[in-house]
Design a protein that fits this description.
Layout lengths: L32 E4 L3 H12 L5 E4 L7 H4 L3 E3 L9 H18 L1 H4 L2 E2 L1 E8 L20 E8 L4 E3 L2 H14 L3 E4 L2 E6 L5 E6 L2 E4 L2 E4 L18 E11 L5 E8 L5 E9 L3 E9 L14 H14 L1 H5 L1 E12 L6 E4 L6 E5 L5 H18 L21
Parallel strand pairs: 1-2, 1-12, 2-8, 5-14, 12-19
Antiparallel strand pairs: 3-7, 4-7, 5-6, 9-10, 10-11, 13-16, 13-17, 14-15, 15-16, 18-19
Helix pairs in contact: 1-5, 1-8, 3-8
Bound molecules: flavin-adenine dinucleotide.
Length: about 400
């Protein structure tokens, strides 16, 4: 536990990172909270609230980790946002992930530290000018290692689906309730104060709603004036192959020009996750309807084979596509929604939702229960910094 980061009234409530079930009983004054979305952000918010002794209702149309949070890479880096407004959140959240690995169980959530190397790959031409390091044996294709860009002190990984599900399961074990359903509106008082959330047409009464809908935040513009959130789409695959705890960030040059930033993440237990292929496509309402194109899968397989004979021979375990939620300034939206008392946004974490989930969950719990974030400066992520609109 990080003593300096605890909120002022910790004597009354446990910090968001003390053990669940050990908090004080929920008092009559505890707010009734509905968390919309059980991706990693909603899961982390519900988990942190449970730590404060406030069991939320968690709603998702597809179950925990139904969208990007179930099919992301799960890469975590402490210092890759140095020099930008995300830096403090990255460092704090990286440290929280280590604590969570102890509490939830590293094996249960697929947590482990990683080395990260950058590499150059091409099917033709001279690669030797990029070589700065001996290339690891398992990368036996047309690839050269360039630089170590992350060490086990600064880089790690989780299995995104297992991590998100563990947070939801532990929040539920501490009293939260998971509801499978579609959020289709809010019940607002005439002055805009939140009174409830409409789930499949029926109102669940509440004092606080946290919208953690990822790229579906734009749908919530029907109910509230909110900043625009976009989704950028990527395809990925999970292969059955053994490789060391060594992630590879590879610049792949395609024959005749073009290429992609190809990523390889070996995971514990004999699997390797690969991604890098961008896709275009609108966001369907149902996350289950998001699938990668055959072209993307063929391209990912082809480029994997250029890197390694192990990857060339590997069987396919899963394929997916997912939308990363993004704002125009690239920063997440974390905080109260102006003009709608009781409504909070926690979304638009772009490429770093897995990394930033623990710090975001803690910040939102502090905002809801203490009136403001005490662990980190939330000003760069304020919802009111961007123009808001309705649909
Ligand atoms: C290929 C890829 C690799 C990535 N790799 C990494 C990485 O290595 N590290 C990292 O930190 N981040 C990574 N990311 C980013 C990360 O996946 C996202 O930032 C994060 O998952 C977003 O989480 P979320 O909870 O905001 O949204 P989501 O995971 O999209 O969850 C939103 C949830 O809301 C639910 N929902 C939507 N509308 C409704 C409704 N009306 N009613 C009920 N439920 C609803 C959906 O079912 C969904 O479960 C990656 C993303 C991609 C695409």
């Amino acid at each position: 536990m990080i003593a300096a980061e605890r909120s002022p009234d910790d004597r009354r409530r446990p910090s968001p990172h003390s053990r669940p079930g050990r908090g004080p009983p929920v008092t009559l004054s505890a707010p009734r909270v509905v968390v919309c979305g059980a991706g990693v952000i909603g899961a982390a918010v519900a988990w942190a609230l449970a730590r404060h002794g406030v069991p939320a209702v968690i709603v998702d149309r597809g179950g925990p980790a139904a969208a990007a949070s179930g099919s992301a890479s799960g890469f975590l880096a402490a210092d890759w946002n140095a020099g930008n407004p995300l830096d403090a959140m990255s460092r704090a959240s990286f440290a929280l992930h280590r604590e969570l690995a102890d509490e939830l169980g590293a094996e249960r959530i697929g947590y482990r530290p990683l080395e990260v190397i950058s590499a150059a790959t091409a099917e033709e031409g001279d690669l030797e000018r990029y070589r700065r390091l001996p290339t690891p044996d398992w990368l036996d294709g047309r690839v050269v290692a360039h630089e170590v860009i992350g060490t086990t002190a600064t880089a790690a990984q989780v299995d995104p689906r297992r991590f998100t599900t563990a947070l939801v399961d532990d929040a539920v074990a501490a009293g939260a309730r998971f509801v499978s359903g579609v959020v289709d509106g809010l019940d607002l008082a005439p002055d805009g104060t939140v009174r409830g959330v409409r789930i499949d047409g029926a109102v669940e009464p509440c004092d606080v709603v946290v919208l953690a809908l990822g790229p579906w935040t734009d749908r919530a513009q029907r109910w509230l004036a909110l900043p625009q959130v976009f989704g950028t789409r990527m395809a990925s695959m999970l292969l059955a192959a053994d490789a060391p705890a060594q992630a590879v960030f590879s610049e792949y040059a395609a024959p005749g020009g073009g290429g992609m930033q190809f990523r390889i993440y070996p995971r514990p237990g004999g699997t390797v996750y690969i991604t890098g292929r961008q896709e275009h496509g609108t966001l369907p309402d149902d996350p289950a309807a998001i699938a990668p194109s055959e072209d993307s899968i063929a391209e990912l397989r082809r480029v994997a084979a250029v890197h390694s004979s192990r990857l060339a021979a590997a069987g396919e375990l899963a394929r997916s596509a997912c939308h990363r939620p993004l704002t125009v300034d690239g920063l997440p939206l974390i905080g109260p929604v102006p003009g709608a008392s009781g409504a909070f946004l926690a979304t638009a974490h772009a490429s770093w939702g897995l990394l930033h989930a623990p710090a975001t969950g803690r910040m939102v719990a502090e905002m809801v229960l203490d009136g403001g974030s005490t662990s980190l400066d939330a000003a760069p992520f304020a919802v009111g910094r961007l123009p808001a609109g309705r649909r």
